[in-house]
């Protein structure tokens, strides 16, 4: 079950942190590590810091975009050491663990996403996440070391998983139908953006965070497969009307 929770490290500079993250994961029973354009990997420093978690490093997937790292995921939890311009649904580490386990139990794929050592995640990357997770650290010194941050969230995921093993109840969502995956959502956002430009609702010269706000709205909605088909169908018909082509209602 914990294997459904992947850890995604974006543009990590120091290979030692990749090794440290792998060790933290293996200690807590997580196994799937995805690296988005790491600066230096594979590396001896990574293996040295992993001390015994080399199997996770050997199995790590290296991809060239966050989008590729999130393929198949229905829940994406992005970490942030500080507040961002557009407020987003927030979780603390405990809530993050519970939510991740709740979804992972239903067979869904979940991603915990961590940013660059010096700059964290970009706004664009954070807007691809359903929730932001902040570790409530000292406000005067809020940034944890990357591998330490992975340790905190991996521990909370394990704790939530252990609570379920003990028979404690963790709310299971009504997800009788599978949720749309991140790749489906990305295709939808592209389609939505094109359509909004086409009908003149979105001015590409003055986007005013519209797409980010819409991502936040749809991200909150837990859209499932059949709902996604409806949304895509609406966009397709809207585009036909905008182009003056024949569409469903013929009168
Ligand atoms: N200077 C960066 C900090 C990056 S720390 C910034 O201001 O964003 C590297 C990564 O560790 C972050 O991207 C995040 O994934 C994780 N991290 C560090 N401290 C954290 C905290 N307090 N809460 C959540 N994640 C944190």
UniProtKB/TrEMBL annotation:
<protein>
    <recommendedName>
        <fullName>tRNA (cytidine/uridine-2'-O-)-methyltransferase TrmJ</fullName>
        <ecNumber>2.1.1.200</ecNumber>
    </recommendedName>
</protein>
<dbReference type="GO" id="GO:0003723">
    <property type="term" value="F:RNA binding"/>
</dbReference>
<comment type="function">
    <text>Catalyzes the formation of 2'O-methylated cytidine (Cm32) or 2'O-methylated uridine (Um32) at position 32 in tRNA.</text>
</comment>
<dbReference type="GO" id="GO:0002128">
    <property type="term" value="P:tRNA nucleoside ribose methylation"/>
</dbReference>
<keyword id="KW-0949">S-adenosyl-L-methionine</keyword>
<dbReference type="InterPro" id="IPR029028">
    <property type="entry name" value="Alpha/beta_knot_MTases"/>
</dbReference>
<dbReference type="Pfam" id="PF00588">
    <property type="entry name" value="SpoU_methylase"/>
</dbReference>
<keyword id="KW-0963">Cytoplasm</keyword>
<comment type="similarity">
    <text>Belongs to the class IV-like SAM-binding methyltransferase superfamily. RNA methyltransferase TrmH family.</text>
</comment>
<keyword id="KW-0819">tRNA processing</keyword>
<dbReference type="GO" id="GO:0005829">
    <property type="term" value="C:cytosol"/>
</dbReference>
<dbReference type="InterPro" id="IPR001537">
    <property type="entry name" value="SpoU_MeTrfase"/>
</dbReference>
<dbReference type="GO" id="GO:0106339">
    <property type="term" value="F:tRNA (cytidine(32)-2'-O)-methyltransferase activity"/>
</dbReference>
<dbReference type="GO" id="GO:0160206">
    <property type="term" value="F:tRNA (cytidine(32)/uridine(32)-2'-O)-methyltransferase activity"/>
</dbReference>
<keyword id="KW-0489">Methyltransferase</keyword>
<keyword id="KW-0808">Transferase</keyword>
<feature type="domain" description="tRNA/rRNA methyltransferase SpoU type">
    <location>
        <begin position="5"/>
        <end position="155"/>
    </location>
</feature>
<dbReference type="InterPro" id="IPR029026">
    <property type="entry name" value="tRNA_m1G_MTases_N"/>
</dbReference>
<comment type="subunit">
    <text>Homodimer.</text>
</comment>
<dbReference type="InterPro" id="IPR004384">
    <property type="entry name" value="RNA_MeTrfase_TrmJ/LasT"/>
</dbReference>
């Amino acid at each position: 079950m914990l294997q459904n929770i992947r850890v995604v490290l974006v543009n990590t500079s120091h290979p030692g942190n990749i090794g440290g993250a792998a060790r933290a994961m293996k200690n807590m029973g997580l196994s799937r590590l995805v690296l988005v354009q790491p600066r230096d990997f594979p590396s001896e420093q990574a293996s040295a810091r992993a001390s015994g978690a080399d199997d996770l490093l050997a199995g790590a997937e290296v991809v060239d975009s966050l989008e590729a790292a999130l393929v198949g995921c229905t829940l994406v939890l992005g970490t942030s050491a500080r507040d961002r311009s557009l407020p987003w649904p927030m979780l603390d580490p405990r809530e993050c663990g519970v939510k991740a386990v709740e979804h992972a139990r239903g067979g869904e794929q979940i991603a915990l996403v961590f940013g660059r050592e010096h700059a964290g995640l970009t706004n664009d990357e954070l807007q691809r996440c359903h929730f932001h997770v902040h570790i409530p650290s000292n406000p005067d010194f809020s940034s944890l070391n990357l591998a330490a941050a992975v340790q905190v969230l991996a521990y909370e995921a394990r704790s939530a998983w252990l609570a379920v093993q003990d028979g404690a109840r963790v709310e299971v969502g009504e997800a009788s139908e599978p949720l749309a995956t991140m790749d489906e959502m990305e295709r939808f956002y592209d389609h939505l953006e094109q359509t909004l430009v086409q009908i003149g609702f979105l001015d590409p010269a003055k986007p005013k965070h519209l797409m980010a706000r819409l991502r936040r709205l749809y991200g909150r909605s837990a859209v499932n497969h059949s709902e996604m088909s409806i949304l895509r169908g609406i966009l397709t018909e809207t585009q036909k009307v905008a182009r003056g082509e024949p569409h469903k209602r013929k009168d």
